[in-house]
Design goal:
The complex is a heterodimer of chains A (463) and B (587).
Chain A (H helix, E strand, L loop, with lengths): L3 E3 L3 E3 L2 E4 L9 E6 L5 E10 L2 E6 L12 E8 L1 E4 L7 E3 L15 E4 L16 E3 L3 H6 L2 E2 L6 E3 L5 H11 L1 E2 L7 E10 L1 H13 L6 E7 L4 H20 L4 E7 L1 H14 L13 H9 L11 E9 L8 H9 L2 E4 L2 H5 L12 E2 L2 H4 L9 H25 L6 H18 L9 H12 L12 H7 L2 H6 L1
Parallel strand pairs in A: 9-16, 13-18, 13-19, 15-16, 15-17, 17-18
Antiparallel strand pairs in A: 1-7, 2-3, 3-6, 4-5, 4-7, 5-6, 8-10, 11-12, 11-14, 19-20
Helix pairs in contact in A: 4-5, 6-7, 10-11, 10-12, 11-12
Chain B lengths: L1 E7 L2 E6 L7 E5 L4 E9 L2 E6 L11 E8 L1 E4 L7 E2 L6 H8 L18 E5 L6 E2 L4 E6 L5 E5 L6 E6 L3 E3 L6 E4 L5 E4 L3 E4 L8 E3 L10 H6 L7 E5 L6 H11 L4 E7 L3 H13 L13 E6 L5 H20 L3 E7 L1 H14 L13 H9 L3 E4 L5 E10 L9 H9 L2 E2 L4 H5 L12 E2 L1 H4 L1 H8 L2 H26 L6 H18 L13 H23 L4 H6 L2 H11 L7 H22 L1
Parallel strand pairs in B: 8-21, 19-24, 19-25, 20-21, 20-22, 22-24
Antiparallel strand pairs in B: 1-2, 1-6, 2-5, 3-4, 3-6, 4-5, 7-17, 9-11, 9-14, 10-13, 11-12, 13-15, 15-16, 18-23, 23-24, 25-26
Helix pairs in contact in B: 5-6, 7-8, 12-13, 12-14, 13-14, 13-16, 14-16, 14-17
The chains are: A alpha/beta (463), B alpha+beta (587).
Amino acid sequence: MSLKYIGLQEINGPLVAIEGVEGASYDEVVSIETDGGETRTGRVVTLEGDRAVIQVFEGTNGLSLKNTRIRFTGHPMELPLSGELMGRIFNGAGRPIDGLGEIFPEKRQDINGLPINPVSRVYPRNYIHTGISSIDALATLIRGQKLPIFSGSGMPHNELAVQIVRQARIAGDEGKQFGIVFAAMGVKNDVADYFRRQFEESGTLSRVVMFLNLSNDPIIERILTPRCALTAAEYLAFEKNMHVLVVMTDITSYCEALRELSSSKNEIPGRKGYPGYLYSDLASLYERAGMIEGREGSVTQIPILTMPNDDITHPIPDLTGYITEGQIVLDRALHAAGVYPPVSTLPSLSRLMKDGIGEGFTRADHPALSNQLFASYAKVQDARALASVIGEDELSDVDKLYMQFGKRFEQEFLQQDPHENRTMEQTLELGWNLLSILPATELDRVDSETLQKYYHPASAAQA
Amino acid sequence: MSYIYGIRGPVVTVKGDTPFSMQEMVLVGREKLIGEVISISGPVTTVQVYEETTGLKPGDPVEGTGSPICVTLGPGIVANIFDGIERPLRQIAEQSGSFIARGVDIPALDPARRWDVTVTAKVGDTLAGGQIYATCPETSSITHKCLVPPDLTGEVVSVSPDGAYTVHDTILTLKTPAGEQVPLTLCQRWPIRTPRPVKARHPIETPLLTGQRVIDSLFPIAKGGAAAIPGGFGTGKTMTQHQLAKWCDADLIVYIGCGERGNEMTQVLQEFSELIDPKTGRPLTDRTIMIANTSNMPVAAREASIYTGITLAEYYRDMGYHVALMADSTSRWAEALREISGRLEEMPAEEGFPAYLPSRLSEFYERAGYMETLGGAEGSVSIIGAVSPQGSDFSEPVTQNTKRFVRCFWALDKSLAYARHYPAINWLSSYSEYTSDLANWYHARLGEAFFDYRGELLRLLSEESRLMEIVKLIGADVLPDDQKLVIEIARVIRVGFLQQNAYHAVDTYVPLEKQMRMMEAIVRVYRAAKKLVERGVPVSRIAEAGAFDTLGRMKYDIPNDHLEQFDTMLKTLEGKLREIEQSFSQM
């Protein structure tokens, strides 16, 4: 049944209100015909008696109160899905924009998804090898994890994401099907193009599904973009048994779109004007990562967000960090010093790595090594703070070694070429070589046995 | 007949002629989604719905149930995992698959399962509220005691023989003074927002031991107490909660995953089924009740999950058990309050939170306590709530208000977490007001020396923090030797004592006696070394003798069940110090 209404009561920003509606349901999709015969899509956001408030995805430009026709479709926003998704490009609302025609759907799925039952989840344990030392050793990416990149404008988060996508291999499962879902939310055209070119160059384009909502596209569509992308990812993972890596950029634009919409609905704002439900809303995206019992595939998320003014306490990175399983933080000072990838070691973290590394996964010494690197690098910061006051020459001998360790850690361990793909062995060896700069008594996170096996002061000198 | 008038996210307004009452449970729409009445004004009733409201239509029917939101209490709760309104997630998975569908109607307790019941009441007995009339083994660790509902008194007029019964079979019939015959089954219902009554509140005097050194020795929590763990993301709140759930000496754990990650709940499920409870030798799941309302599950049910959890905890307390409740995280619960308050267009107070946030928090934390139950037994509920302050800023409303209602505060510190010092409990800003309440207990168990050592440790740590201010400016080299010694020994305390490795077989749980011996070792070596330093021995000499390294590694080197090795270690260390003293006086 599809009911059609003519005329609107009110147009306000992206919202229109219509009265005299019967039988509309909450969250239902409507199609809107304008004066000029153009068709737009919208969604019911509030119902009160016979009055419905609808948000229009493409914006309300050119709509008039009188001659706009509204048709209720009777179902929530759905995405057509089939195995043919791979290699295709869609707009933010899930319509093809690559000129290759519509998808012939095997099924349609509500883009809001449903929460995964915690008892049906499989706890993620298999690590994904990225070939990037700072990630593999210190913030290991695990299959089924959500690990965001916290960056700032002007930092190479896109390069890093591309490198992860290019080099990511699942340990132990090389042959399994691997897919990438890319969601662009409010990014510039050049950025989307950069990703497309990079996927093309690395020969992965045929394994990528792209959802593009560029910075000049309507903001309401931006709210649908990640949901469409994740619906596609869940379908590929749980029905087509693929290991799907979802790259979403830029979450900050997404949240701003949400704020814009919230304020046009006259909602009571929470912190910094963002709606009070920002946490729940972000969680409804991020929690769609994981693995499910009895299904072979997995959804791994790498959301990218640019921290406004590099402020990690801003609500967007703050709430994200509370939901995601760790974060990779990029650091402007390291970037300025020419280190790529400029991964800020101390605040970066992978919550799932503790169960996915070590004996039987990577190597038995991995947990101790990463712990020690964190602890030692934390001391480097103290030594540097001291050196900035009293001068490096006045430092104690141990502090001088810490200065040396810190410098080489950044230049040899963190620093690597965007095309360099280090094996786990190489990364771990490099870590031990650097730790061997320090006296053994300083390595208090390592038990004596491991220390004996890997601590070689001689190799530090020649590395 | 009432019907839906308006829909706004999880909040639905209802018109019609049904006389709803406040906090009544209602069934909304054709799918009969569960909701709760949160305000009534004239013809309009406002309902918060515990499931996604997508697809609801104005005009859909709304039915009242005549009672507030209740939980079903009976055998089958322990070792189970529920959502925020006590629906069993395992059965939901069986019915609706890996994703949670809407409108599933599954009873909390398996109606088909038979329990091996021993009836303890006899015909002619007079039973009052809270008294036990039957027992059955619920899991290998917990014996379920069926209690007469608190508001009921009467004479037993008939009993069933011992045997296997389902939760709905009648076990006995009571005749109330009014002459009414009330059948009692294995289960009863209780509204989640009403605390279960007790006979009396007892003073707090027993610690809840956790095996975590920084907690048991420095900032202890009491059985029946309430503690808060605030910390920014990545500081290890969840890790600390897991450690406490695994090792604390409560009889039963209620673990509430309130608006947190799905994978974490899965981890708890898996890990707890593999871990063995040191007290009973049975899997930890056998003494755990889990409530999982992950961040992407409906927000109104998240608000309810805290109350569901505490009601289950109180029920087992009434049987005479010591229950520890972990809520991870209360901030998500407060945010759910804020979200619903916003949808109701209430006037916001601080940071958009409703003005009634503090009163809701206090109501919740006051449900903790060491009680004498109606049945005359002793039981306790201890609450450990994680707080996730926005932007790691402890001045935000949830942390500040929580601080007013808990007496134990374990502040997690970002810089400690960055240096991977776990548990990242900051020893300068944390406190426990229970220390004095528990003094008698500690004296009796460990002797007077305990508070001497504890005080010395805290003094050294605060001294170190003062010295570090100087070191940051001019370096450690210029300090006089007695202050260098403080810095060295404080490092031993930090690395060797406070820091505890949750993944190390020996270190993950440390009995109180070993904690005591460790403190003793540190303080004795410090006092001996201090004498040497006063005589002019440089600290570097003491360090070269390996004194600090040995102390730093004793947590790994000395097994938990071979405490006599402390004597050997101390003998060796003190011997070495004497040697230094002798060689120094000869020079």
